[in-house]
Amino acid sequence: MAPVNGKAVAKKSDSPYQLDNAQTLRASTALLKKIQSDEATSQKTTEKPSLLADADEADVEDETPVWMILTTKKHIVDKKRLKPGKIPLPHPYLDANDESLRICLITADPQRRYKDLIESPSFPAELGKRVQRVLGLEKLKTKYKSFESRRQLLSEYDVFLADDRIITYLPGVLGKVFYKTGSKRPIPVSFEGKRQNVDEQGNKRRKLSEGGNKVTKTEVKPADVAHEIERALSSALVHLAPSTTTAVKVGKATMEPNALQENVETAVQTMVDRYVPQQWRNVRSIHIKGPNTVALPIWLAEELWEKEEDVLDEPLPAKEKPAKKRKRSALAEAVEEPDT
């Protein structure tokens, strides 16, 4: 990591950059204390909720989320990707063993095929209880056309998992009811069998352009579906768009600081390695924050631009504004000061 003063710490691996474990832990500890303190204060002063409040929004997040904010020097992608990426976390914020967890599977047609897989004796019984509904794409289109019906569907389940072959169709089918906040956006899962890379004779499969046959896949099994569901529930989602800022949910306010620290470090390293062009050299800053807190820095780059030509020779003209002194947040100061 480059501490708050901007100097990067050399990493023993090929990358010259890495997070400072102590800084990440300090930030995680301070952030969790701040969120919990604010929630305790809010509970004492909160009045009766308005009857006009959005009940769906209140149901979406029962626990306060913690976000990792990664800012890059240049856009990560050129256009918005409808299929989010997944980063497995060491401490998932969704508990697959929670008996109250309600899961809805949205599948390719025919939906009966996937219902049979869930109901199979070889599918884990406890996980099967969490999967309370299997909904095919065509049925979703015909039964949930109205805004009210989609709101009802949203409120009935905690998590929506969708076959990754149809995930890009869902924004048009489910609309802003599901995609406005992102709290219950369908998570992509693979319900296909594994690719077969060898032919019947055991030889390596050739490409179509080389005279080979089409790719064949093994028949998907109940255990495969269960594995994909568990993997999706234990992962953080990465929604990529043409922007220099990407927010990834990495935990919740009820976590222990050490668990949040490990989630943050895993998410950062995977993001940089897998999704950021030029990796660490394209990263400007990394922060963590809650919904209503300041963003706490855990890494700041020394160079703000990737190349010298990206810097303007002269600053753009700007209207002069009276200088205002801004008090530093006590929370931000606490993060920068090592424990004594």
From TrEMBL:
TM region positions: none
Pfam family name, one: Ribosomal_L1
SUPFAM superfamilies reported for this sequence: Ribosomal protein L1
GO molecular function (one): RNA binding
Source organism superkingdom: Eukaryota
Gene source species: Hortaea werneckii
Region (Disordered): 36-57, 312-340
Record-given protein name: Ribosomal protein L1
